Amino acid sequence: MSDTQPAFDHYTPGEYASEHIRITPTTLADGREFFYMDDDPEFVSGKKTRELHDPRPLSNRFESHQDANGNTVPVQAPQMRRDPLTGDWIPMATARMNRPITAGPGAVASGNPLAARKPGDPYQDGEIPDTDYDVVVFENRFPSMMQVPGEADKPSYVDGNPLWEKRTANGRCEVVCFDPNEHALPADLPVERIRTIVEAWAFRTAEISAIDGIQQIFPFENHGQEIGVSLAHPHGQIYCYPFIAPKLEQELKHTEAYFDKNGSNLLADMLKAELEAKERVIFRNRTWVAYVPAAARWPLEVQVSPVRDGIMTIDQLNDDERWGLAQMYSTLLKRGNAFFDKGDGKGMDLPYISAWHQAPIHDERRDHYRLNLQFFSFRRAANKIKYLAGSESGMAAWISDTTPEKIAARFHELGPIDLEAERN
């Protein structure tokens, strides 16, 4: 490891990351934070360095700009409004209407802003300054939530009516690019690359947790045209909410009530019960267990939990657990692609959402929560999608087209796998 490896205020790399992953920070032309996360030995050692200069003529994202009529318009953070019936905060980010869409039937742009820079290419609005990279993390150019310096985070009301509280959506959105190959599939990445991605989640969780106003950090991945991805490049995102998202709020209510009644952790007891039942456990290693939850909603749904108790966020994982997670996640993606049979025995590129549920940063209920990954797909057959119609969308009352036992049985049909053998 080079002795010029930068130090960060809240993230401390473990033994593996210290020796095999190098983080190089810079800023993009408009002032957004950007981080290279290299696992190539020549960059880790410092023998090679990354391009830090972003040549695009972008104005600072916090500077005022001129509108079509020549009027000076100050930069404004996205707004959010609270639904008085549910208490949910709804961010409203109109600037996202201008983001490039290069994938699927709604594609309106050419080029790939997540690809490495290609000198001479007519498309020169990419986000990566260098001509190659391993993994990169940077602030989203078209964020759903954003903190604007000097803008007070004070409540006000729509139409002056206290029924409808509104605030700035004072959060943060980041992008994590998994690989420079824009045609790569996450399922095909080597375990060592996924290990670097795991480190990126841990790094950002540790650093962002110290930013004022952030309440929850949510790393996630949308994959596949059916999910609605606007960029096909292998990547994920990290949403940093200035509130606790509705799904986590519901889980916190139940985990807290369970602790008050039983004196134990609900998520830990769920894992213990699944291990005792055995039928829905689909694979495990020394540090992680993957199972189909007994009350699964989706036609393909898997929950992944750490074995060790007391882990609330990704940055609390030790080296063995981060390696075990990389192995588990690689296996999950591969087995997900093999789940549906089109008749040729080759499986398919599964559309999925991978959602990390971490404990909130400041809420006192965090002590009774436990880190877990919820992985699911909209696909219910090789040629069918589960659409969220009246009952699901209108009443959030889920109707499952299968059973968790059948989902688990299909995974078991794909054959045994030795997760421990995958680490080099």
UniProtKB/TrEMBL annotation:
Enzyme class, spelled out: transferase
Domain spans labelled Galactose-1-phosphate uridyl transferase N-terminal: 77-243
Entry-linked CDD domains: GalT
EC code(s) of this entry: 2.7.7.12
Keywords: Carbohydrate metabolism, Galactose metabolism, Metal-binding, Nucleotidyltransferase, Transferase, Zinc
Domain of life: Bacteria
A single GO cellular-component term on record: cytoplasm
Residue positions of the active site: H235
Classification via InterPro entries: GalP_UDPtransf1 (IPR001937), GalP_Utransf_C (IPR005850), GalP_Utransf_N (IPR005849), HIT-like_sf (IPR036265)
CC cofactor: Zn(2+)
PANTHER family membership: GALACTOSE-1-PHOSPHATE URIDYLYLTRANSFERASE
Organism: Bifidobacterium aquikefiricola
UniProt key word Transferase: yes
Metal-binding among keywords: yes
Name of the protein in question: Galactose-1-phosphate uridylyltransferase
Annotated segments matching region Disordered: 61-83
Gene Ontology molecular function terms on file: UDP-glucose:hexose-1-phosphate uridylyltransferase activity; zinc ion binding
Family of this protein: Belongs to the galactose-1-phosphate uridylyltransferase type 1 family.
SUPFAM superfamilies named among the record's database cross-references: HIT-like
One Pfam family from the record: GalP_UDP_tr_C
Sequence ranges assigned to domain Galactose-1-phosphate uridyl transferase C-terminal in this UniProt record: 252-414
GO biological process: galactose catabolic process via UDP-galactose, Leloir pathway
